[in-house]
Design brief:
The structure is a homodimer of 294-residue chains.
Chain A lengths: L8 E4 L3 H12 L4 E4 L7 H6 L2 E2 L3 H6 L3 E4 L4 H8 L10 E5 L4 H13 L3 E7 L12 E6 L1 H11 L5 E6 L4 H10 L2 H17 L8 H24 L9 H9 L14 H15 L7 H5 L7
Parallel strand pairs in A: 1-2, 1-4, 2-3, 4-5, 5-6, 7-8
Antiparallel strand pairs in A: 6-7
Helix pairs in contact in A: 4-5, 10-11
């Protein structure tokens, strides 16, 4: 429980994540104003004590701290456009996915209207909002972060300011998030292969969890290799993956593996570039685009 | 320390994993015979007390339990071919990657020569061999597993018999392993993107570790959805990933993203098949190959 009057907050965008954010603020005793294009989505929050503003402008005017949780930066700008004049002097915090360029463009627009701006990301699922270990990170105006850190921490105990640049959360979001879809598709493919043998996907979960633990333990090692550019002390070499890439696809898996072909190509290109005996992290060198001509 | 005379073991194939296996047996007091095509690789093991056999046949004849750790099932067969007549009555345990079909073929060959056969996999890196939590799983002759479980457990405390079918380890190996390269390439791409901004790859490790924890926590949920075929209670929907798939690639990342295109295609196909509001785990349905005509 806060010992001072809790900061009034506004949450715009009530998808599953936006609802979770608003619920956390309501539960923590913050006067909470919400707005959503489809007002019905606000009903459960209103029942818990939130106020549904009739317009985006009224929603912005209700609080010194305005969080948006829409799908893209463009959606965010579209929703805020009618409230642009009300942004002056307020703190605007976006929590959506999107590119660094999108974050910078919205930052320019919002600060142009006098808002102080932070762009952040929730690194977890809606049900984890509010937990002590849940990570949210933000880039942008440090004074906003410092002023509202206790309020932002309501959304997750692991709340981090990445730096003053407004696109840092988007940068890390896309960098860290780049593992998600590929890892999941790998798991789904494995699940389909196991099921094709009449076994349950659940039977591989324990092994897959351990596999992720092992991958997790390797990340600091790989990061060190990538930062130093020294790939020679290879626990898992490119050639090890090359053997797998060059193996004949197993006819009896009953699962599509075409999506793996470009990954195997990266492995082959790394080997061809002389990284065969180097750590698999040397694939980073192959993933860098050649510098544009100056 | 074993209270009975430790079982003599032979390890054929002294790559980094094979060396780790042999070292663990030597350290646990097992009379350990090794063989490698390049004998120099055996020198450190011999210094620790292992015996380097002059031929594969001599290596096989030295122990009732013979482990191979070569790259493929074909390599294993090639190495064992000159020792085929010595296999009768011995337990042969393979620890290599390869397809279920490859495991079945080697099993047929080995049992045809009178060996009792287990095909297994080490689900970790060489440096983890021997640790209490290290996972190894095996498929095949249960009597071999039961007879030698204490010896096999020297290699890792989490030692599992998957079932009597000789290709089960290969099946789970490819199913569980399907996450590895995609997840790593995702991490490497993120590292390259962060570096292109002048930041260290190390700066994203903490976030990436948390991200993997989150993915890990989702696996049992996804497995339940996949096993039940009920994808309607979606914490992360296909449409959420579709927005990302359809976003313009960020021009300024300086990183190749072409390898993601087939993954985004899978997302689009799932949405087109009516899974838009379903859990992302519905991608499993898209990954199944259509049944061949009967």
């Amino acid at each position: 429980m806060p010992t001072h009057d809790p900061t009034p907050v506004t949450v715009i965008g009530l998808g599953s994540m936006g609802r979770a954010l608003a619920e956390a603020f309501v539960a923590a005793g913050h006067p909470t104003t919400v707005w959503n294009r489809t007002p019905a989505k606000a009903a459960p929050l209103v029942a818990q004590g939130a106020v549904h503003a009739p317009t985006p402008r009224a929603a912005v005017e209700a609080s010194p701290l305005v969080l948006t949780c829409l799908t893209t930066f463009q959606d965010t700008r579209s929703a805020l456009e009618p409230a642009a004049e009300a942004l002056a002097g307020r703190a605007l915090v976006t929590l959506n996915s999107g590119s660094p360029a999108g974050a910078r463009a919205l930052a320019a627009w919002a600060t142009g209207h006098g808002a102080r701006f932070l762009a952040g990301a929730v690194k977890n699922v809606p049900s984890a909002v509010g937990a002590p270990d849940t990570l949210l990170y933000y880039g942008g105006d440090r004074t906003v972060f410092d002023a509202y850190a206790p309020t932002l921490r309501v959304l997750g105990g692991d709340t981090v300011h990445l730096g003053d640049e407004t696109d840092l959360a988007a940068l890390y979001e896309s960098a860290v998030g780049a593992m998600l879809l590929p890892a999941l598709v790998g798991f789904f493919q494995g699940a389909a292969a196991v099921q094709a043998r009449g076994l349950e996907a659940a039977s591989m979960v324990r092994y897959a969890e351990k596999w992720l633990d092992m991958i997790k333990a390797l990340l600091p090692v790989f990061a060190r290799e990538i930062d130093s550019g020294d790939y020679t002390d290879a626990a898992s070499s490119v050639n090890l993956f090359l053997a797998d890439a060059d193996a004949d696809p197993d006819e009896d898996t009953a699962v599509e593996t075409a999506w793996l072909a470009p990954l195997h190509d990266l492995v082959r290109r790394a080997a061809a570039a002389g990284h065969g005996e180097h750590s698999i992290s040397a694939l980073t060198e192959v993933l860098r685009k050649p510098r544009q001509r100056a």
